[in-house]
Structures are given as C-alpha cells and as structure tokens.
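Tokens for Extracellular solute-binding protein. Go.
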Amino acid sequence: MPITRRALGALAGIAACDVALSGCSDGPNDETAGDITIDDAHSVGAMDDFGVGVTFKATEPVEFSLMYRDHPNYPVQDDWSVFHHLEEDHNVTFARTDIPMADFDQKKSLLIGSGEASDIISVTYGGSETQFISGGAILAVSSYFDYMPNFQQKIKDWGLEADLENKRQADGRIYHLPGVREAPDVQYSVVIREDLWERAGVTEDPATWEEFREQLQKVKDANPELDYPMSDRWTDATTLGSLLSVMATNYDTVAGWGYANTFYDEDAGEYVFTGTTEEYKEVVSYAAGLVEAGLLDPEVTQSDDQAVQKFISGRSATISGNTQTLAEYRTKFADSGAGDVPIRLISIPGGPAGSKLPSGRFTSGILISSKAAEQPYFKALLQFVDWLYYSDEGLEFAQWGVEGETFTRDADGTRVLNEDIGWSSINAGAPKLLNADYGYSNGVFLLANGSSKDLVFSMMTDEIADWTERQLEGKEQVPTAPAPLLDEIELEQTSLLQTQLTDAVQAATAAFITGQRSIEDDWDAYVTEIEGLGASQLVETVNTALERARSESE
C-alpha cells in the first residue's frame, strides 16, 4: 500500500550530498524548480519544441536503461505492442533489467546501493527514496521541473502544490516523481453476497460501521449454515490489513495496511503515536468485538485462497474486496458451478470521525538515477518521462494502447476496448488481455492508474463507475498533513525505533483482535510496553523536525 504523509512513519527527508552532474552547470541548493540547465552535450535526441500538447518523439533513436518490475500476472514480453510503438512512433527503446515482483524492492535497493541503478527506476512508493539520497545515487529531480511541462501543468491544474511541497527532503529538493491523480483513489471496501444478506432482510448498505456490525448479526441469524458471516482475506501479512485500513480513516486514525507509527493530530497541531491513541483502540476494539460475537472468522492468518474459497463455497457471506476483485469472485463462482451469484461492493461505511477518504492524490512513481544526468540523452529522457507519465496523450497510450489496434472510439468519443481484449471487468473472458498480451495498463508505464478522472473512469464498468462516483460525491478527503523533514541523524536515530515499535503494535493488534489479550484488562499494560520501546522518543523527534520545518518556512 502507498505511504501517505498524514500517516507519517518518519519516512521524512534526510540531507543529501550534492551530486556533481557532468555537463550541467552547478545550481544553488535551494527549493526552486529548474535551477540547473542542461547543455547541448546532454540533449541528444531531445526536442526543441517539446511542451504541453506536443507528442514526444526523440530526434534520433535513444535507448534508456530501465529497472523493470516484472508482474507475475503479466510477465514482460519483448514483442509487446507497447515496446513496438515506443520504438516506431517515439524513437525510444529500453535496456531492461527485469526483476520479478516478489524480489523487486530488495533487488532495487541492492542495485541502487551498489551504484548500478538504471536510468529509470520503476514502481517506487513515496518515502522509500530517503534511504538512497545520502549516497547520491538518486537524482534531485526538482532541479529539472522546468523540463517537465506536463508534470507542472498537472500539479497546478489539479491543485497538488501542497502535496508536492510535502515531498521535499531536508535539503529542500524532491527526488521521487509520483503518479498523480485528479480525484482521490478509492477502490477498497467489503464485498457481500446479496442473496444471503437479502435472506436476512438487509437490502441497503450500512451507513456506519456500527450498522455494519448489526447487519452481520442479522446475516448470521438468517443463515445458520455459515461458519461466519465474514471471513477475511489480505490478512496473512498484516492482520486484517484491508479491513482495518478502510475503517481507520473514519475513526480518525490509520491501521492495517495504512498503519504508521506517527499520526498528525489536526487539533493539537502535532504528531502523536498512532498505536496508543483512543482512536486506534476503537478500531481494534471494533474488530475484536466482531470476533468475540462470532461475526468475523478469528483465523486472521489465513491465506487469500483460503478466505476466497470460504466465500465461494458459501461458508461466509462477506469478504474484503476492491473494484477489481468483483470480477475475480464472479469468475470463481461460475467456475465452482454456483452460477451467477449476486455480489456487490458496499459503500464505505462512516464512523465516529464522519465519512471521509484518506489524504493524498499521489501514487507510486519512479526514481531517476543521478547517473542519468551524465548521459548524452539526459534531456530527452526527462522529456520522455514527462510525456509518458504526465501528458494526456501519454497517459491514454499507457492505459488504452493504440487507437485502431487495441481500442476504437464511439461517435461521442468514448473509448471502446476491442471485443477480443479484456481488462479487469471489461470484456471478461476475452481471449487476450490488455496487459499480458500488449503491455498496456502496466504499472511500470502507468503509475498505479494515476491520471485524470476521465481516464480512470474510462476503464470502469458502469457498476464500478457508479460505486466510485458515490464514494467521491459522498465523502470528503482528509487534508494532507505537514511533513516534518528529519535530517540524516534524526532518521538514523528513529529507524530502529520504527521497526521495533511497528512490530510490537502489529503483534498486540493481532492478539487483541483474536482475544489472546483482553483490551479491557491489558490495554494499559500494552501502552506501557510501547512507551518502553521508545514511542515518546519517536514522537518527540518527529515533532522537533516539524517545528524546525515550520520555522524555516516562515
């Protein structure tokens, strides 16, 4: 899951060493964009007239090195359409270093740390770049924003200036290029079997999580053959990772996948330790109450396959899901011989803090190696990255492919995927897949579907588009929290604390939820344990950095 600045796990900036960039004039170490000029020696293949609305095509063939995350659902193929058209239409090829998704983060770190990073480092979440900055291996890309007109336009037009400022490190520069979204990313909630819920007389989505609990009880009473009304997935690595993450925003905290040790308290104007707040306790207590009442399967270390099988076989009536898994569940129901079982993704219930969506409209993005600035094609690389990831044309290409080959347009301009090509719920069962057979809608080239609302919605079925629109219209987004900029010493001081505190909180969370520990009897002892591991020290360091950042900005 992406890391947000509101839930800051002290993934803040550290001082970076100045990197001598061959062929580039030295720029001041300030916070302005475009403070370094790229000379002609490093502009091979670059366009003189590149700008918003201009298709990038290198003036001569260029080859960029690319650290490629190879997804098991769509293994990379040399003959993909995406590679063919980038070469034929844009004069761009890649020298790829293909890394399996399961090993990507580890091997990425090794390659960057050893100075062997590719020009373009794909699929990198914000915050993870801090570990590489002090070694000088990662480009301070904010020094070159003037060469990225599409990126600048999206930031301005979509009101993302404050979010971008939060990406600055202690040296005032930005190193991570994020995927950007016009509208908040909302995908996850809970999937229900409508037939079993209707048998209980429940036909409306719950307005709150408390109402959801009441509905689960009704489902249990009306369907005695169920093992549990809910048995959850995405819980083997992080206890109830998706469910707690979805719940937490409306309890004014973070949990599950979204957990981070420090959380910004808007009223107090400072960070607090997440895992010991009353809000976090409420979330844990809610989940523990479901288990105690027999409404939620206590097997919180089961695999996804086990949880899904319980749902498909009728042993449970509810499971976490998202806008993609609806198609997965329907296919599995059909394959099981159950036929067309009615299921739906419920609207995200509200909570004590209201009905909200998490902060932030940045998604996973890319890093650029500092060595790329030494290459003769450096300016062309920046133009290409700007076109592919941030221009309207490049985003459409990365998501839909090529008009006439993978899609057509209706008379009103609506994109229509070819009938023999499938993507998620669109053309389910088609013989070809847009990502696996063509290379489009691929997280390496399309940053977590980060783009315009129109383009995101264009890939949705009517059912998913309607659900998503209801979430966006009915909820407000939590504001982005200010980012404390930890320096290198502070980051080193807190790194060990972060790990041991997170591990302790997650272990206790699992124990409380499953009843191995009593919230009523053991919560105070747990808080004392967490304090003994350095919670106050961590929070004090983060807030000191926050105050320093505020003072420097005044």
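The longest helix spans residues 488-514.
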